[in-house]
Queue: 2 jobs
Job 1
Amino acid sequence: MGNATIERPQGKLGVMIVGINGAVATTFLAGVMSIRKGFAKPFGSLTQMGTIRLGHRKEEKFPMIKDFVPLAGLDDLVFGGWDIRDENCYESALNAKVLEERDLIKIRGDLEAIRSMPGVFERKFVKRLNGTWIKKGTSKFDLMEQLRDDIRTFKEAHGVERMVVIWCGSTEIFLPANGVHKKLELFEEGMKNNSPNIPPSMLYAYAAISEGVPFINGAPNLTVDTPAIMELAEKKHVPVAGKDFKTGQTLIKTVIAPMLKARMLGLNGWFSSNILGNRDGEVLDDPGSFKTKEESKLSVLEGILQPELYPELYGNFYHKVRINYYPPRGDNKEGWDNIDIFGWMGYQMQLKIDFLCRDSILAAPIVLDLILFADLAQRSRMYGVQDWLSFYFKSPMHTPETVAEHDLFIQMMRLKNKLRQIMGEELITHLEDEMPSGRITHRKLRKAVK
């Protein structure tokens, strides 16, 4: 069943990436280009490889998600973006050392054709980097206007119909929301007055939303998660999503913690350690940037375990997160978890998990899915926080009247039910599988209970 209110994905979709020369962005770009040419498969991408159930399980209707909802095709994506290094994306991909040269050489021309535009950079917000390819301006408002001009120029030059901007840049220092972030008017004054509390990520977000372009925040930065930027998104009717791509260790936490809670197993402590040697690891070696990441990672367990409801099980657990920069490891991150739990009669047990993962390999399909879903949200006239995309984020944004959901399986159910809702299909509650008459209604449920 289709939905006439959704605009079809006609024409090209422009994708502008902040941090386009980074490991995540170049791995994503190389993957899409390889898939287009038949050199690779889109493993890890829900939009490309996932199915969705429709109706009663007995009906066996499991279409591919990409066939069920009108998503932009991979051939329709056009790429550009900003960085603080003047390189083309082939050079950057080689330097990132995520993908083998034998895979990159097949798409060398496609990657070399993409060269970054100068980025907006202020070193106090990312102290371990030094920008050499950066914009100059009279004020932060002027820099934001230059970004808006970049978006308009890109759209016209490439003849794209629609656009999405996604942050794949580095983690900025921890920044609590304060006065300049409370109202749109104050934020705009702050840009003109060079407020020290407005980092570059917020300028990108403001520029994109002002141009009517969906913005996705892949880092734990505050960025769009403020009343001022949300006021702008509501005013412009633009969807936003974030924050912090859920890739390695936190992905594991959102699977294991729901299991402990489902079985009413208690938790004494959870120690998490990471080693990685890419640019993200170097940035996180700075205490200010680590604080931002730590806040994102620490929120997951309490959100899932709800210690206020289960004080005997989760009221006093110790949670520690460590991230260590270790250059020899490169992008091949290792996440090690020691989990001390207890069960029947208080007897102690342990879980130990060692996840030898590839950070950018896990992040790249997330970038693809979020771009396609953000575009779908825009064409479906959905705006503001897209909390149905929480599945992809460590610290998912949510509206003031809701609570963030961290359980991976609940997040997946919400995402797929949103797709069903968009397309006018009945939502799946799994209660209908127990009913002999098929799909359940409130009337049938009341009768069954009686």
Job 2
Amino acid sequence: MKKKFLKYFIMCTAVIFFMTSASVTVLASEYDIPVWSSQNNKVSDNIVNANTAKNDVVNTNASAESREVLDSSQAITNNPLKLTSGGAILIEQSTGNVLYDYNMHEKLRPASVTKIMTILLIMEAIDGGRISLTDKVSCSENANSMGGSQIWLDTTEELTVDEMLKAICVVSANDCTVAMAEFLEGSEEAFVAKMNEKAKALGMNDTTFKNCHGIDEDGHLTSPYDIAIMSRELLTKHPSITKYTTIYMDSLRDGKSELVNTNKLVRNYEGCTGLKTGSTSVALFNLSASATRNGLSLIAVIMKGETSAIRFNEARKLLDYGFTNYQYKSLGTANDVVGNIEINKGLEPTVEAVIKNDVGIVMRKSNNNNVKQNVELFNNISAPVTKGQKIGEVTFTLNDEQIAKVDLVALKDVAQYGFGSMLNRVYKTWFTLTRN
């Protein structure tokens, strides 16, 4: 009996030694991704990972450098579309990649496209819980006195935030815009200060706001580039805004006030999601137009078009160019399992490695090469391991050029062996052996 027990003791000791000193096997593979189309997306050889700092520009806590979201180094800049407006830009929404650039940093008067920033701050207040869509908003004498596009608010009436947003997005109501500015910050001046603060945080270096509505005022300037930045911020951070920006016809005041969208693309351009028009006799005709088709979301900005028809036609040209030549491809989804990695001294021998963030790229449809991925899991990972801990990387390449990279993280916690847990494991192993 003593010999038999000694035999079991030696075997259990060997098991413990093996489990506490085993090294990690590196799992690596390089292969064509079979579930994706062989048509790969490349933006003029400028492929952008949707989860790099370029996508984090919308984070107002980011550094000034990381807020330079829109990379124009490979954009089309020689105006082959023969645009005649004062300035234009086309970007892909999820990455911020510039697909077409024509005088994109030209400082021009935005007219009511200004209201994109106003709407952005309203949506931040709603989504942040400061105000609700059902809150009642009154009209001051100042708001009542506004000219230009309006719904003729009266100082004796109140509209809900929902109704105000509808009037601002659909018919560009200046009176409602000022009423909302005063409701949020107490005065239009204080609200405009918030607009400029937000513009600075987003890296809108071509922009100075003098008012919240866009009526011509000396020094009230922005650029196609900056309009693209704030449009992207609004659409990516507050996608519910399209509930309003896609309305073509509606009404207020129990049907007494009819609303018809100033953005004609909402009615006649497939996939249009908004966004905002603007025009004055000095600014001429401006537009930020957004649309989504087959998972590709684009934003086209036109400034200083000579006529209303020109701004819509040239925005349509930009969007058509983007949808014809580019596509967005997902390379991986957060929490996709890539492999297993062995853990030294862990209560569990392995843990699943998963993709940390969604990752995707924009590329030209004409590029038919296969995207490849290389999975690298780190060596010598020892317990304890925490959920979300980086344990590897996936690199995506096209023609041997790196196009994207994403971290691999542990799917769950793995605790470390302690003296008690090792004794428990020895006991279980011994019990199993004695039953055989």
